[in-house]
Each structure stands twice: as C-alpha cells, then as structure tokens.
C-alpha cells in the first residue's frame, strides 16, 4: 500500500540487533559525533561566534522538527509557532520579569511545550496531509495572536532583551562566553533527542511511522505516543527560539511567521529526513546561504524554493542521507 | 437608522457582504483544492501563487496588451491553467508513487519560487486594477448600498461553483473523474486515458484559482502576497469541510466567509482567528470534517 510508506528516506526498519556501539551511537555515528564536537570546539576561533550561535539555534530547531517528521512520520508545517513563542516568552521573562537567562530559556521551552500540548491534541486527530494543514492553520492563528497581544510588541517585537548572567553569576556579555552556553544547550537538546529515539518509547514511535494500524493492533495507544512526541518537539523548538532571542536580544514576528515553518522543513529536507545529523548539516547549509545571499533580497526566497524542488525531485535522501548511503552506514 | 442586535443595519449588511465576498474566494479555492486532491492525492500548495498569478495576468493583459477585464476573465484561466498543465507534466507527475507529503513540499517550493519572482519584478506594494466601467457604481437596495462589482463577484463565484458541481456530478466526463478518484487502475482498464485526465484535472483546478485571481484583482490590490495569506485560511476551510464533497466545499466556503464577516461586527479582535478556532472545534467534535467521510 503506497499510502503507508513513510516519508523518510531510510524507512527500512533497522534490524533489531542494531549495532549499539557507544552510548547508543553506531560506530559511524560516533565518528560523526566526534567531528561535530571538534567543529563545535574549534568553530568560534575561526568563525564569528554570533553567526555560529544563530546556526546552533536553528540546528536545534531542525533537530526538534526532525523528531516528528523523521521518527514519527508527522509533517508539522507550523513549527515556527513554538520556535517564535519560545523566543517571545524568553524575551519577556528576561526583560520584564528580570529572570536569569537559563530560567528565561526554560520559560520559553515550557511555554512552547504547553502550546504544543494544546495544538498537538487537536492536530493528531488527522494524519498525513491533513496533519500538515492543521498544524499550519494553528500556527497561523498563533501568528495572529502574536500580532495582537500587547506583550509581544506587535510589529516592533520585544527589543533590547538583556543577556544577563548565567545562574546570576557568569555574565554573558562576551560573545565567546555565550557561545559555550549556546553550544551546551544545543548538545543537551541533541543528545536528548538521540536518547528519546533510542529508548523503548522511540521504538514505538518508529513503529507508528512504519505502520500505525499495526501498532494500534499491538495494543499501543498511538495517539498518546504521538502527542508526547509533539510536545517534546514543540518544547525543544521553543528552547531553540528562546536561546535565539537571548543571543540576539530581540524577538520578532519573523520567527512565528509561516515562512519560518517552511525554512525548518527545508533545513531538515536538505540535511536528510530521519537522519541524526542531517538537520544539523541542513541548518548549517541554509543559514550560511542566507548569510551570504542576504543582499539578494527576494531572490533568497526563489533560491529556497528551487532547493525545495530539487530536493523533492532528485535528492530525497538529503546530504547526510546521501553520504550515509554512499558509505553504507546509517548517520 | 434601524439597529439589529444593537448594530446599525448598514454596518451589519456591509460586513455580511464582505464576508460573502471572502466566502466566494474561500469556496472557489477550496473547490479547486478538493478537485485536485480527489484525483492527484496532492495538496496543491501552489494554489495561492496561482491565484496571485491570475490577478497579475489580468493586470498584465490590461497594461501591456490593452485587453480589458472581460478578455482577462476568458484568457487568464486558459493561460494559467496551461502553466498548471506544464507543471503537472514536468514535475508533479513524478511524485505519484511517493508519500503524499512530498507533493505538499514540492508545491510549497514552487509557490516560494513564483512568489519570489513576482516580488522581484513588481515589488510588494501592490498594483491597482480598475473596476471595469460596466460594473462601476452601486445599487440602492433600500437597506444598504451594494457596489455592483461586489455583487457581481458573489454571483460569478456562485455560478462557477455550481457549474463545477454540475460538471462533476452530472456529466459523463464528471462520472469518469469520480470513478478515477475511487479506483484509477480500473478506469484505465476500461480504456480511459487516466494520466491525461489527471493532467487536465490539475489544469482545471489551477484555472479555477486563476479566475479567482481575476475576480479579486479589482477588489484587493494586485500584490505578490495576496495568494499565500489566502491559501492558509483556505487550508483551514478545507479541514473544516472535509475534501470528500464538492457541494460541501462550496457551502463551507461561503458559510465561513459569512461567519468571519459577522465576527468583524460583533467581536472584531477575533476576526482574524475565528476560522482557525472553528477548525479546532470541528476537529474535536468531528475529525473527518463537516462533509468528510471518515
């Protein structure tokens, strides 16, 4: 049945005796993790730390999105709502309530998770294309709320959000100091997602992706599993958005707009749906591209559209998926 | 001046009319989406961009070729429908064997490309399109003034929707289409050229969006974003109605437009979100949609 084919490129279920090398990573994945850690450690000395921090925020955002599309097979077209709301709440908490940055980021993440709980509760009633349309529509509703609610500052957004001091002791004014914090948050989120998809719970998620009716007939309440995955994904997206607003000191409507939802889909698609490292690579590619092509204005949209089309027509495995296929390993 | 529920009558009827007009566009767009989805199993995210292309094509015909509104109404659906046919042959037809979500992603990308190109070419401020002289002015209905053009849009949309419904439900061609929606291989076995029908169906859905664009051009200013903002609301309309029934799409579209208009009168703050709230409520009560089959 063509309908139940999952969207992921590597939808062949992993054999039960998957090589659980080190900490649940296969040997190839562990190697890739090593490369990523090395890049994280050397990066700020070679590149502008603020650029890297932006990249890491989007990488975490894409990883959170990939948790849903790659491992549950649910395409959320409204993840900007959680990303942006996390940013607004963190900004508000840091600026108006005067919370320390780590508490502000937690506030943003928890808010996004709560929002995800409500939206997910509505959206998981439908599958496939309908799920995508519903999440998009709900996100648009949240966008309109953000335009109207007084605390978001409407078109101006929340500006001059203080970076503050970590735990109230370590001032984060220096970019490099903040970079290590952001890198830590990213790694925490990344490993958390890795842990989730390798847990028994994650196995059930994958079985839902492969064949939901069969998972139901085996006695799993798939709706509960999907809802929890949605909440986790929304919460992590919120953490990413919250971190971004602390880094840049602003939270605006751009981050809740549907085009941001499209961007995170694109990042994950370019990197490779359902791969562990794909969203990170995809985020790096797209953010770098935006950075260098910023002066082209509306052409950036056109280029993104072209990449979408090429990826869907000819490059469905994504960068990391292709590399993995070439090396015959799962990355 | 008479009041109805404490609201001045002209204000109430004015908003009702605006709601009807929005509803006309919702109905036409969701009808096109439903027809395409029925046969292609693809949600056409490009639909908004194609609506916008329709409006721009009307503007170009007027400014560059000197062809007036009536010519546009005739030519634009043919031109834009043809671009749809090309699109289906070149790209969309490659995805039928894959997960339906890839169709959504492809058409989303195509929408981005089209919108970006138009924004580069024409800026985002919007271009004016004059109401054709035959439809200028307003009728005095006694309780309100009805601008003729707005009345025309509602009537034209109703006629188009009903014609589409008749075409699909009452003609032989429509019967083929419905049969192919149910079971394409079987219809093909009877000697009907299903791939060509699929292509033409996509072209037809796109043409519907393009006519919508022409009708919208004199009401809203012609700008590159006009379609995308509309398409997201239309998605909610489609979820509320369910895509199973043609008549259902039409009724849902007009009904939600009216509800939106009334919300503008009684609780303006919620007018932008009311359709999404209704969508959530419908999903909780009847997940398949009002007219959908589970």
UniProtKB/TrEMBL annotation, chain A:
It comes from the Bacteria. It is found in: Cell membrane. Keywords: Cell membrane, Membrane, Transmembrane, Transmembrane helix. The keyword Membrane applies. It is a multi-pass membrane protein. The chain crosses the membrane at residues 28-48, 55-83, 103-122, 129-151, 177-197, 227-252, 264-289, 296-315. This is Branched-chain amino acid ABC transporter permease. It comes from Belnapia arida.
From TrEMBL, chain B:
The chain crosses the membrane at residues 12-35, 42-62, 68-87, 99-118, 149-168, 200-220, 232-259, 265-285. It is a multi-pass membrane protein. It is found in: Cell membrane. It comes from the Bacteria. InterPro entries: ABC_transp_permease, BCAA_transport_permease. Keywords: Amino-acid transport, Cell membrane, Membrane, Transmembrane, Transmembrane helix, Transport. CDD domains: TM_PBP1_LivH_like (cd06582). The keyword Transmembrane helix applies. The keyword Phosphoprotein does not apply. Belongs to the binding-protein-dependent transport system permease family. LivHM subfamily. This is Branched-chain amino acid ABC transporter permease. The lineage of its organism: Bacteria, Pseudomonadati, Pseudomonadota, Alphaproteobacteria, Acetobacterales.
């Amino acid at each position: 049945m063509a309908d139940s084919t999952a969207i992921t490129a590597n939808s062949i279920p992993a054999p039960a005796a998957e090589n659980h090398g080190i900490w649940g990573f296969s040997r190839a994945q562990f190697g890739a993790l090593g490369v990523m850690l090395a890049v994280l450690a050397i990066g700020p000395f070679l590149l502008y730390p603020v650029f890297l921090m932006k990249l890491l925020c989007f990488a975490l955002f894409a990883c959170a999105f990939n948790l849903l599309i790659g491992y549950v097979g649910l395409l959320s077209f409204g993840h900007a709502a959680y990303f942006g709301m996390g940013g607004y709440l963190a900004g508000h908490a840091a600026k108006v309530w005067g919370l320390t940055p780590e508490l502000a980021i937690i506030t943003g993440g928890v808010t996004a998770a709560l929002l995800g709980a409500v939206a997910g509760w509505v959206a998981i009633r439908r599958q496939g294309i309908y799920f995508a349309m519903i999440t998009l529509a709900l996100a648009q509703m949240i966008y309109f709320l953000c335009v109207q609610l007084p605390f978001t500052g409407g078109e101006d957004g929340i500006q001059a959000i203080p970076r503050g001091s970590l735990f109230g002791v370590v001032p984060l004014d220096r970019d490099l100091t903040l970079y290590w914090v952001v890198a830590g948050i990213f790694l925490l989120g990344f490993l958390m997602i890795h842990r989730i998809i390798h847990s028994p719970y994650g196995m059930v998620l994958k079985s839902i992706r492969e064949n939901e009716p069969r998972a139901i007939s085996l006695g799993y309440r798939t709706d509960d599993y999907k809802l929890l995955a949605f909440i986790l994904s929304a919460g992590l997206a919120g953490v990413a958005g919250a971190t971004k607003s602390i880094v840049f000191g602003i939270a605006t409507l751009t981050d809740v707009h549907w085009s941001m939802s499209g961007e995170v889909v694109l990042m994950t698609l370019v990197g490779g749906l359902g791969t562990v490292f794909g969203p990170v690579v995809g985020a790096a590619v797209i953010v770098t591209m935006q950075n260098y092509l910023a002066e082209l204005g509306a052409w950036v949209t056109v280029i993104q559209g072209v990449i979408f089309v090429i990826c869907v027509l000819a490059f469905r495995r994504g960068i990391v998926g292709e590399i993995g296929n070439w090396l015959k390993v799962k990355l | 001046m008479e009041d109805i529920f404490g609201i001045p009558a002209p204000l109430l009827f004015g908003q009702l009319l605006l709601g009807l007009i929005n509803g006309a566009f919702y109905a036409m767009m969701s009808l096109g989406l439903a027809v395409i989805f029925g046969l292609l199993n693809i949600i056409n995210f490009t639909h908004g961009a194609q609506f916008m292309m329709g409006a721009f094509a009307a503007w170009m015909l007027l400014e560059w070729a000197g062809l007036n509104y009536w010519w546009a109404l005739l030519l634009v659906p043919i031109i834009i429908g043809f671009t749809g046919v090309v699109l289906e042959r070149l790209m969309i037809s490659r995805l039928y064997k894959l997960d339906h979500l890839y169709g959504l992603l492809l058409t989303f990308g195509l929408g981005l490309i089209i919108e970006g190109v138009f924004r580069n070419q024409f800026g985002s401020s919007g271009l004016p399109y004059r109401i054709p002289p035959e439809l200028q002015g307003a009728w005095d209905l006694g309780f309100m003034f009805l601008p003729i053009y707005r009345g025309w849009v509602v009537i034209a949309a109703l006629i188009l929707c009903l014609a589409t419904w008749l075409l699909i439900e009452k003609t032989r061609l429509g019967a083929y289409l419905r049969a192919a929606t149910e079971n394409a291989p079987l219809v093909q076995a009877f000697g009907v050229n299903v791939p060509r029908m699929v292509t033409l169906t996509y072209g037809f859905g796109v043409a519907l969006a393009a006519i919508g664009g022409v009708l919208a051009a004199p009401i809203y200013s012609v700008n590159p974003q006009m379609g995308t903002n509309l398409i997201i609301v239309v998605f909610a309309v489609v979820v509320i109605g369910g895509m199973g029934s043609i008549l259902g799409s039409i009724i849902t579209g007009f009904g939600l437009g009216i509800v939106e208009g009334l919300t503008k009168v009684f609780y303006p703050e919620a007018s932008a979100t009311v359709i999404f709230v209704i969508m959530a409520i419908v999903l909780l009560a009847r997940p398949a949609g009002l007219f959908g089959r589970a």
